[in-house]
Amino acid sequence: MMRPDAPNYSPLLNPGVVPQGFVPFQTNPGNVDANGAVHPLAGGQPFVVCAHQPTGPHTHTQYPYVTGTSVLAIKYKDGIMMACDTLGSYGSTKRYKSVERMSVVGQSTVIGASGEYSDFKYILNLLDDLTTHDYCLDDGQQLSPKEICSYLTRVLYNRRNKFDPLWNSLVVGGVSPKGESFLGMISMIGTAYTDSHVATGFGAHLARPLFREKQYDDMPEDEAKALLEDALRVCYYRDKQSINKFQMAKVTKDGASISQPYALATAWHYEAFVNPTAAAIGSW
Amino acid sequence: MFRNQYDTDVVTWSPAGRIHQIEYAMEAVKQGSAAVGLQGKDYVVLATLKRAASELSAYQRKLFKIDDHMGIAIAGLTADGRVLSRYMRSECINHRFVYESPLNVGRLVCQVADKSQVNTQRSWKRPYGVGLLVGGYDATGAHLYYTCPSGNYFEYKAMAMGARSQAAKTYLERKFETFESCSLDELIRHALFSLKESCTEGDLNSKNCSVAVVGIDKDFEILEGDAIQPYINDMEAEDSGAMETADAAAVGTEGGEEPPAPEAGGDEPAPMES
Fold this sequence. Notes:
Largest sheet of chain A: 8 strands, antiparallel
Strand order of the largest sheet of chain B: 8-1-2-9-10
Strand content of chain B: 15-25%
Oligomer: heterodimer
Shape of chain A: flat
Order of helices and strands of chain A: EEEEEEEHHEEEEHHEEH
Number of strands of chain A: 13
Number of strands of chain B: 10
C-alpha cells in the first residue's frame, strides 16, 4: 500500500492557500458599503481547505500508521483455512511482532485484516455489538459469514463515501449453518467479492497464482495446510514487511479456531543470499 | 363492554389494574372480519374473509406481502394495518440490503410489538387498532405469530381473529395436531374449512375469501379468485358428502344446505374496518 505524501501548505507552492494566522469568516468589511447599505454575502469570502484550521470545511484524509501485511485464505474439503503473519509494521519498522490480525466472530466465521490495525479493532468492536445483540435476543439466530461480509461491505463503502475510510482489506471466511463454505474479500473502498481463494496485499500477487494452480474445493486438510504454508513462505521471502511467525485459522461446520503462532522452515543458505552482490554490476 | 370510569386516555390505569383504552383497541380487532392462520412443518397458510363496504364497492384487502418470505393478514382498522405493513416492508428491505439475507420473522414481529407498545405509553398517541397474523419462513423454519394492539405477541400453531373467530378457533383446536404432517393442499383446505365456520351465511366463494401461502420452496403468494376456485370446489364436494373422509365427518357444517350468498353489506360496521 502506498502512503500518500502529506499535503504541503507552503504558499509558494499552493496558490490560494491562506497563510497561517489568518482567521476566516470574520465580519467582512466589504459587506457594508460607504452609504451604510448592507450587501448580501456572495461567497467571495476567503476560506481554507485544511483539516488543521479550526473553522472551514473539514476533510478526513487518513494515513495508516500500524499496518498488517497479507492475509491468505482458501476453501478446502471441510470448510476454509486462513493464514497470516503476526507483524504490525510502523512504516518500514517491524515494530509489533505479536499482533493478532485474525479473529473469530460468532461461532462459525473468521475475519482477517490487513492494513491499519486500529481500524481493524474498531471493526471487531462493531461486530461485537452485533453478536452481543444476537446473544441478548437469545433466539437461536446467529450471523452467517455471508451476512457479516455484506454488513462490512456496507460499512466500508459508506465510510469511503464520507472520505473517511477504514484503511483495511478484510477477508471474511466461514461455514454457514447449512454447511456451505463462504470466503469473501472486502477492500478499503467497499469493493467486495467471493471466491474459492482470496488474498490481500502482497499475497494477491504472490500467493494467488499458487492457489490458482493448486487449490480445488475438495482438497483434503493436509494438502490445504501445505499449500497455505507454501504461500506464506513465499510471502515471507519476498515481502519486506513480514516476519516468520504465522497463525493459521480453520473453520468447519463444527466451529472456528485459530492456532498459536508458529514459524516455518526457511532456507537462506543459497549462494545468492550469502553474497547477494556477487553478480551485481558495479557494486562494491 | 360497558363504559368505564378510567378509560379517558391510555395513560390512566384503572384501580383493577387494567388500561381500558388498550382493551377497547383490542375490541376493534374483534370487529374486523375473520382471518385465520395455520402453521405446518414447512408452510404457513393465511386465509381471510373479505368484506365489501357496500354492494358497489370492491372487497377490502386483508392480506399483505411483506417480503418474499413473509406476509401478514390484518383484522381491525385497515389504515393502521397499512402503516404497520409499510414499516415491516421497510425493515425487511433494509435488512436485505445490509445483510443480503431475509429478516428473521420472530425478530420483526418483536420490533412491531415494541412499536405498538410505545403507543400504549404516550398520552398524545393511541394504540394501533389492528391485529396482525404474521406468517413467514426463515432459517429457523415456518412460523406464525399474532400481534395485538397491546404490544404483546405470541407464536401459534393455528390462530383465528376477527368477527365470529371463536368458531374458527374451535375447528382449529380439533385439527391442529395434524398440521405438522399435512401437505400444503391439506393445510389450505383446513384453512378454508375453519374460515367457513366464521361465515354468517355459511358459504365461502372465490370472491369473498383469499388465501396466502409461504414456505420452504414457495415465496409468499396470495391466491384469490380463479386461483382459489379449485379449493372451494373441493370443499363443496366434501360438504355434499361426495368424499367420505375423516375431515369431512368432523366438519360441523356438513349436511346443511346453506344458500350460496355473498356477505351482505348492510349490517357491516364502519367502512374503515375490515
